[in-house]
From TrEMBL:
It comes from the Eukaryota. One of its GO terms (biological process) is protein folding. It comes from Fonticula alba. Its main location: endoplasmic reticulum. This is Calreticulin.
Amino acid sequence: MSPPKRSARFVLSIALFALLASLLPALASSKVYFRETFSTPESLGRFVQSKARDDYGTLRLSPGEIFADAANAQGLQTHGPGTQFMATAKLDEVFSNRDRPLVFQYQVKHEIGPICGGTYLKLLGPDVDQETASSDTDFHLMFGPDVCTNVNRIQALIKYRGKNHSLRVVIPPMNDGLSHTYTFIIRPNLTYQILVDHQIAGSGSLAAHFDLMPPSRIPDPSVRRPDDWDSVAFIPDPNSRKPADWDDEPEFIPDPDAVKPFDWVDEHDGDWDPPMTLNHNYRGEWVPETMPNPNYSGVWVHPMIPNPEYVHDPDAYVLPDIGHIGLDVMQTRPGAVFDNIMLTDDLDEARAFFEETAGEERLQAEREVRDVRDSAAAERARLELEEILRTEKAFDQAVYGSQEIDVHSTQLDSWRDLLSMNDRASRSARMVAEIALQSINVAQTLRQREFTQGGGVVIADEASEAAIATRNAIQAVGRARHAYASWLSRNAKAKAQMEERAKAMEEAAKAEEAAKAAAKAEKADAGRDEL
């Protein structure tokens, strides 16, 4: 007797039930292993500061200087007198990322300015002596910004088979002095993502970008490019000729706007020659025009073969068990504020935590506080410089009289030029800001082209490039602001120099008055002697 037939709807229901049953354990297993907002005084005690060295700097709770809400902005701040910092915090329970994502996220800001050092964090094993932990303590992962003279990138190091493997892709951090959130995601499908303020900054293959495994295919060593292969697409046009007057103009000419210094004396200083400046009519080295190469063979592609040394390791993403989070950094100028640290296996948890504690609102609030502070400082400096100009002019009139004003007008003009250059620096900063906003709009449009493939997120190349271009543009704004601050600093030095000069002139005037009084008294004494 044949078994009873079941309807297609019944079979489909059974299949859906089985699928949901298989997903429930995964959905229920999502967990947060570490979460810290540093909102209470007890938060400081969670990070045990190492006693391995006597010269370690200290850590304290502080919102820094740029914040809108002190209670919510409070974080773990590096503080002198030392420049090396070491502290660890224990997880709520040991975390293994086998068969689950690893999502490590934290927020940091360094508002002091250019530094040499890192603002990264580490993941360490469960068997760590927190009192004696140091830079030599073994770690499983390191992640975060690293900035110095020749370094400006987000570092990401993974421990694999006893060796540290560093991310080969350069992803620049945010250097605008505001709070930014950095997220590192490792997935069981051997892919990774790095987010900055929950915008994708980099992604790809763990095996390829961290060199965890050799490439699966390599160029065939037995094949060579043919000797007669011509890979030059364009060649100089043999019919191109250099114009007869091409070399008539020199590269440099005397500056027509240069003015002979007012204190230049030919008898003592020699003949004055104006400085040289670039000749805008100079045409440079002549290069013949090019034409398509008739013998061009195209781009030669090396044939690939399977790599005999390649062994696929499906567990390459698995880190050793994690039991602690470590702060191990060196900073020449301490003051970085670490905040809102989370370790979880669920990206949605990290995203919700970001929106709750940071998000665009906090960043915009900090940006407004910074801009108000900087605008006020710039305006104060401007008023001080204008006061310096007025004081200098009045002093010259009082000491030297109207005949000497022309002699010092050149110096007065130099201070006015400095004020004008400040104006230009401010305008340049605004122009760079407008360019940055345009770049941001382009990046946001391109990010909409993200797509999912093969279980791992793959980002369109132009979206990744636009994200990097956006951060570069924002950093350009920071550089423009830094240039403006440099001018303000020079103003302060100018003020100090003027005060020293005024003091010297005042002492000289007093000495001259004393000499005149002494001469007058001596003359009076001589008159009495004659009588």
